[in-house]
Design a protein that fits this description.
This protein is mostly helical and 143 residues long. 76% of the residues lie in helices and 3% in strands. It contains 5 helices and 2 strands. It has a two-stranded antiparallel ribbon with strand order 1-2. Helix 2 packs across helix 4. The two termini are 53 Å apart.
Length: 143
């Protein structure tokens, strides 16, 4: 069982997945900062100073002044602004992943074309049948 586990871990896909998760976690922090520090202020400027992250509906009826105050008081809130921010984060991450996948696919296609051109340009060696015939003839001569 331990050897099977070692073989599983040693496979390239598992290592690639682990690297992807680590990079994804770091990338999430960058995207969160991009949305909170750059995009939301621009959207707030366009919409007249609305900060999406602080938009909420107080379900308790106490009327807290801010989302933080409501959460600190333990009041139930419908924090739809946080949801809007999460949707913006998702769309940015999805767009960047799309661009990365597109770039990787383009690179793979270019590499495949180069390999195909190199294979076509390389001189063709003898076929398997020709090699077997040569071996047969050599064996016949030795007798």
């Amino acid at each position: 069982m331990l050897n099977e586990f070692k073989a599983f871990i040693a496979k390239g896909n598992v290592v690639d997945l682990a690297v992807g998760i680590i990079i994804g976690a770091a990338f999430t922090a960058i995207v969160n900062s991009l949305v909170a520090d750059l995009i939301n202020p621009i959207i707030g400027l366009i919409t007249g100073g609305i900060d999406f992250s602080n938009l909420f509906i107080d379900l308790s009826g106490t009327g807290p002044a801010s989302l933080k105050a409501a959460k600190d008081a333990g009041a139930p809130v419908f924090a739809y602004g946080s949801f809007i921010t999460a949707v913006i984060n998702f769309l940015i991450i999805a767009w960047v992943v799309f661009l990365l996948v597109k770039a990787v696919n383009k690179l793979k296609d270019a590499t495949a074309k180069k390999e195909a051109a190199a294979a076509a340009a390389a001189p063709a060696g003898p076929s398997e049948i020709e090699l077997l015939a040569e071996i047969r003839d050599a064996l016949v001569k030795k007798k």
